[in-house]
Amino acid sequence: MANSTTLSRDAMCDIADSFETPARAGSRTKRRIAIVGTTGSGKSVLAGELARALSLSHVELDALFWMPEWQPALYELFRYRVETATAADGWIIVGNYSQVRDLVWGRADTLIWLDFPLPLVLWRLLRRTIGRIISREELWNTGNRESLRKAFLSRDSILLWALKTHRRNRDRFKADIDSGDYGELDVRVFRSPGQLRRWLRDMAPARA
């Protein structure tokens, strides 16, 4: 997400107020927000901003799925970790993993879908990947790092993954939302960064 979406302290307070709505069960509680979208769409940046605004924990499913040496967690362990994370009173969870969608979407009250165009997603992902390669950023306290080989010369390339899954994600998310299997989710779909920025600004009107 572009830097222009960074929220001021007053804006964060106004957004927090706007999210003070009754939960599914009818009692007021902290929000449970799931954020989805193709890799590189800006989910984690948005989650970080909202987490600060709403004083909620921010959990990335990647952090619960990946083990050292890019090994995936066992299915049972992954679900246990997600089940533990979603048992909290309020949270923001980022990620698309279908293996745990029943846990995340099933316990969420709000779903934010960043359905941005593929060229924009790929450009953002390319910038992020190059930045991580240069900085040698460690991901999710696993010792895992992006590399030139993995990013550009591997079948496991994150760029190739985004290219292959963009359309598939769109079809699956739409089908799952339309199915009604996840109760009365407050679904917000954003097709462009501008649309997302306008929503954030509408939620945080200028104070007198």
Brief summary:
The protein is an alpha/beta fold and 208 residues long. The chain contains nine helices and seven strands; from the N terminus they run αβαβαββαβαβαααβα. The protein is 49% helix and 13% strand.
Q: If you had to describe this structure to a student in words, what would you say it looks like?
A:
The structure is a single chain. With 208 residues, the protein is of the alpha/beta class. It has one domain (3-117, 168-203): Rossmann fold. The protein has nine helices and seven strands. The strands form two sheets. A five-stranded parallel β-sheet has the order 2-5-1-6-7, with helices on both faces. It has a two-stranded antiparallel sheet with strand order 3-4. The two termini are 28 Å apart.
**Terminal residue distance:** 28 Å
Gyration radius from CA atoms, angstroms: 17 Å
* Strand coverage percent: 5-15%
Low-confidence stretches: 21-28
Shape: globular
Number of domains: 1
- Specify the helix fraction band: 40-55%
CATH topology: Rossmann fold
Question: What are the main properties of this structure?
Answer:
7 strands, 49% helix, 208 residues, Rossmann fold, single chain, 9 helices
List the helices and strands and how they pair.
Blueprint: H1 9-18, E1 32-36, H2 43-54, E2 57-60, H3 61-65, E3 66-67, E4 71-72, H4 75-86, E5 91-94, H5 101-107, E6 110-114, H6 118-135, H7 148-152, H8 158-179, E7 186-190, H9 193-203
Parallel strand pairs: 1-5, 1-6, 2-5, 6-7
Antiparallel strand pairs: 3-4
